[in-house]
Amino acid sequence: MSAQRILRAKAPVAYPAVLRAVLFDWGDTLMRWAPEPDLLEAGHAAGFDAIGREPVAALTKRFRDVYLSSFFEPGIVEEIEYPAQVRRLLAEFGHEVSDDELAHFLEAEHAAWAPATQLAATTHALLEALRARGFALGLVSNAFDPPDLLHRDLERFGIAERVDVALFSSEVGRRKPDPEIFRRALASLEVEPQEALFVGDTLATDNRRGGRPRLRDLPGPVVSRGRRRRARARLPGVHADGRADDRPPPAGLLSGDSVCASTNRVTCQVLREPETRTHNVS
What is the pTM of this model? Predict the structure, then answer.
């Protein structure tokens, strides 16, 4: 064997990373957020009732006009201190509250919002099918409510027992697309960024660069929705409706419909350092 052939044989070969974990967004991905027009009023009324005080009608208008827009401002990655915001709002209308009263107000408000949270019909089947195939599963979501209330929601919907880690921006202090919340989830799962796929619903908050890479720019699995594009890779053993598929490869495609039957868009990205690349499927 020639020296050139020996050198070629010993040269390191770069293999693509094997997918080991799938991270999901919560709102409008694994569940649908479908609020009624008077949801804020109902939440504030429930909060006042919980602390034994009369509701203030003007408070909700003040919240909409001054506070609400800052909660979803694009490009802001520092999570707001929602309890502090509520305390300040109440004080503007002459209601000074103790820590216990504030906690009761927030808990009652959160409970009044519960009917707006609708779990997708295939969510349990999807998570169970992925876990049966050996994938580590995580949930990473922007949410300003107190973490204990949010984790209680996951337990109520049977999500906590079906994922290995769940992180909300209110407990990390940073919102997506800041990489810190992703790093913490991946560290908990003990996987590298290139070994994970993220599935969400909003390009602006799920993609740090804000770009729209072409399908061929993504080296790993990409979720496809509908007939407009096909996925470059498939998650093994999952039907399009989230059911497990025991047939030999090629296995069923993990589609947008299997994530949330009612969502309009699905964002999927292969996580990588130092940037996160995203592909948005409409």
Answer: 0.73
- As a whole-number percent, the residues of the chain with pLDDT over 90 amount to 51
How is 66-118 classified by DSSP, letter by letter?
IIHHHHT-TT--BPP-HHHHHHHHHHHTT----HHHHHHHHHHHHHHHGGGEE
Among left, alpha and beta (phi > 0; psi -120 to 50; other), residue 190 is left
Beta bridge partners of 21: 136, 196
Distance between CA atoms of residues 56 and 48, nearest Å: 8
Q: Can you count the helices (H) and strands (E) in the chain?
A: 12, 8
Q: Which two tokens stand for residue 48?
A: 């006042």
Residue 24, burial from CB neighbour count under 10 angstroms (0-12, 13-18, 19+)? buried
Ramachandran class of 237: left when φ > 0, alpha when ψ lies in -120 to 50, beta otherwise: left
Q: CA 110, CA 119: separation in Å to the nearest integer?
A: 16
How far apart are alpha carbons 30 and 127 in whole angstroms? 10
Span 228-266, pLDDT tens digits? 333 333 444 443 344 444 443 333 223 333 332 323 334
